[in-house]
Design goal:
With about 200 residues, the chain is an all-beta fold. It contains no helices and 21 strands.
Length: about 200
């Protein structure tokens, strides 16, 4: 099945937290024309903007995913446990919340524990959760998943702060398989190491 999402603006986005529980292609009008999520840090979507469940094959194309915030967990913009292709998207200004036991949530922009192919995406301005131990992966947290990143810009993301700061401002690969080709990874900050 395919869902074509219409145009919206950064200040008047489709304010949704979407769970994808069947095979689906979601197509926007372009990252400068279709916006999904909250409007600002004071008006964020509660939970991941998109959650892709295990066993699901999905594609998200041509939209901006913004201002999602998990209250307890990983993946402010996208939490993927399935097979996800993200192409020509902007994933920005999302935050992973405080996780279990006051540990910061992981993956401000994307948390992946499945198979993720990210191509021609901009992943910027995302923050992993703060806590006694800061969260990992400001831009992307790859948790034992398979991540293929090609022609992406991953910039100005921040891993969580804490008594022990988080790692991997841009990407944190936690025991997964990572293939990065022709990506620009710059200006990211870690609370502990590996900006």
């Amino acid at each position: 099945d395919t869902i074509n999402v219409g145009s919206s603006s950064a200040t008047s986005p489709f304010q949704e937290a979407v769970t994808v529980n069947k095979d689906l292609t979601i197509t926007g009008q372009g990252a400068s024309s279709t916006f999904v999520g909250g409007t600002s840090t004071s008006n964020m979507v509660s939970g991941s903007v998109f959650t892709v469940n295990s066993g699901v094959t999905a594609a998200i194309t041509g939209m901006t995913i913004q201002y999602g915030q998990t209250s307890n967990g990983n993946g402010g913009g996208i939490a993927n446990s399935g097979n996800l292709t993200a192409t020509n998207d902007t994933i920005s200004n999302n935050t992973a919340g405080i996780g279990i036991g006051n540990f910061g949530g992981n993956g401000g922009g994307i948390a992946n524990s499945g198979n993720l192919t990210a191509t021609n995406d901009t992943i910027s301005g995302n923050t992993a959760g703060n806590g006694s131990v800061g969260g990992n992966g400001g831009g992307i947290f790859n948790n034992s998943g398979t991540l293929t990143a090609t022609n992406d810009t991953i910039s100005n993301n921040t891993a969580g702060n804490g008594s022990v700061g988080g790692n991997g401002g841009g990407i944190f690969n936690g025991g997964g398989t990572l293939t990065a080709t022709n990506d620009t990874i710059s200006g990211n900050t870690a609370g502990y190491g590996g900006g």
